[in-house]
Structures are given as structure tokens and as C-alpha cells.
Amino acid sequence: MPGYGKQSAINYISLAIPDFMGLLTVVIPTFKERTNVVDMATAIRKEYPDFKILFMDDNSNDGSKEAIDGLNDPLTHMIVRKPEEKGLAASVLQGFIEADTDYVMCMDCDFQHPISALKEIKEKMDAGADLCVGVRISRKVMGLKRALGSRLVELFCKFFFVLHRKPITKDMMSGLFAINRSKFQPLIEKNWDKFELEGWKVLMDLCKFSEGKLKIDYVKYEFNSRESGESHLNPKVTIMTFHQLWGFGKVLSKLFCKIYGVSYRDMYPNEF
Ligand SMILES: Nc1nc2c(ncn2[C@@H]2O[C@H](COP(=O)(O)OP(=O)(O)OP(=O)(O)O)[C@@H](O)[C@H]2O)c(=O)[nH]1
Ligand SMILES: [Mg+2]
User: Fold this and answer.
1) What does the alpha-carbon distance between residue 248 and residue 170 come to, in Å, rounded to a whole number?
2) What residues flank ion ligand 2 with Cβ within 5 A?
């Protein structure tokens, strides 16, 4: 695994897409999603003719880029990121900055987040929300064990956020949310190196680094099962999630490294 913290705050502005101005960009992080990318782009475009779509791909090298380019849609792009900077959160955050639209939204590339929810999210942003979070009504499709684990970790996260007087949301770990870019871009740039760049819980870090009050709104949605392709979920996601939770979180993250047989030193060499 590449050493954590290799990503620089400078690199993410190197790939700016010209003429990508507009109101809303849907940022979709992808890794080996060849079987889903075109269906996702087509499905979003069908419902939302004026939304920008920006795939942030971690050098999948599986034909995804060629497939998206082949659509010849001027509002749909895929950026292929440098392999040494691989990271889901880094992809999403870089996408938020590259997008250059008033609102930016992120969602997964496997149809677990319903495309129909984007309309309501956009309406909440138009009504003045700084942040609109998609809230999963049920996590049944995850299976009992994963759903329970997810709820427990979330409770734990909320406790720490309250303790540190940081904003909490109804679904702290949702991968479906939108932000007002002008509000969040300075915060992303200022804290770039402190984000859990290889982690998955982007929303959590955005709340963690936010200053002052946020206008938060919500849209409920049914969490579906993955349509095709393979899940990328792995034990490191739990380790990285705990690592986002200040000092005691890091202790837990070390504990989970031991449980999963993963080297904490390899994941976070900068801490040694
Ligand atoms: N850019 C980038 N995207 C990633 C990476 N890992 C996963 N993704 C994408 O992030 C999204 C969420 O990953 P999933 O594998 O669906 O994770 P999950 O939804 O927790 O797992 P399932 O419920 O099993 O689908 C998908 O769009 C993935 O393609 C990564 O390292 N880099
Ligand atoms: Mg998924």
C-alpha cells in the first residue's frame, strides 16, 4: 500500500477542466466500474439533461475512460487520477474542486444510491442548504452483520462529534450528499493534508473541519444493492474511519489494525 500522506495539496489543481461552469456537478468516484460507468452516465443524463457528471477514476485501466469518452457528452467527463494518489476521499474532494459549479454532489457508481433522489437534493440546495445529506431509510441490503456494524460505528462517531462540538448529520457516513462549493472549497483547500484521503467517509471529515454553523437539510432514500461489478469494501475502511475520530479514534484504529492483521505503521508512516 502506498504510504499515507503522499498526496500533495498542489496536485489536485493540475487537472482543471476548462469550460466546466454551471450549477451542479455529480461527482462519482470509480475504481474498476467498467460495467457500471456508461449505465450510470446514461441514467443520470436521461433524468437531468443539464447536470454535469464528473467521474473521478483511480486509474482503473479497465476501459472505463474510453467508454465515457465514447459517449461524446460535453457535460460528462472522467478524470483518471495518478496511481500513487489512489484514494476514495481524495477522488471525491478533488472532484469537488475540479467541478467549478455552484453545487457539487457525490454518489457511488453502482446504483446503490437512487438517481431519482438527485432531484430532491438539488431542490434543497436551491432552497439555501449548505449541505444536503441523503439519509438511508434502511440498511437491510447490507446484511444483518454489516448493517449492525455500520450503525454501531456511526453511534460512536456521533458521540465524538458531539464531544468535539462539531456538526453531526442524520447519516454521518452517507456516500450521497451535496455541498455548496463556495462554502466548502476553502475548507477543503485549507485542510487537504489533514483529510483521511484514502478513507471513505468524506462527509464526516467535511463536518469535522467545518467552522461555524452549517445549514443542513436531508433527503431520505432507499439504499439498493449493487447492480453489477464487485464491492471494494475492505477492513481498512473501518480502520480509516476510526482514524478520523481524533485521539481516541486513533487508538481504536490501532486496535483494529491488530485485529485485522494490518500494519498501522505502513498505513500512517507520517505518524512515526
Ligand atoms: N476513485 C476511487 N473510487 C473508489 C475506490 N474504492 C471504491 N471506489 C468507488 O467508491 C464507490 C463505493 O465503493 P463500493 O465498492 O460500492 O463500496 P460499498 O458501497 O461500501 O460496497 P457495496 O455495498 O458492496 O457496493 C464506488 O463507486 C466505487 O467504484 C478508490 O480507491 N478510488
Ligand atoms: Mg457500493
Assistant:
1) 22
2) 108, 110, 112, 226
Residue 248 falls inside a structural domain: yes
Which CATH number belongs to the domain containing residue 150 in this structure?
Answer: 3.90.550.10
DSSP 27: E
Same domain, 99 and 46: yes
Tell me the DSSP string of 134-203.
Answer: EEES--GGG-HHHHHHHHHHHHHHHHHHHHTT----SSTT-S-EEEEHHHHHHHHHHHGGGS-TT-S-HH
Q: What is the pLDDT of residues 176-197, one digit of tens each?
A: 999 999 999 999 999 999 999 9
Report the separation in Å between the CA atom of 231 and the middle of ligand 1, taken as the mean of its atom positions: 6
In a domain, 1, yes or no: no
Grid cell of 154 as nine digits:
456511526
| pLDDT value of residue 139 | 82
Q: Using a cut of 0.90, tell me whether the model's pTM lies above it.
A: yes
pLDDT at position 42 over 80: yes
Instruction: State whether 249 and 147 are in the same domain.
Output: no
Residues 144 and 211 in one domain: yes
Instruction: Find the residues whose C-beta lies inside 6 A of ligand 1.
Output: 29-31, 33, 56-58, 86-88, 91, 108-110, 112, 226, 231-233
Q: Residue 268's CB: how many other CB atoms inside 10 A?
A: 19
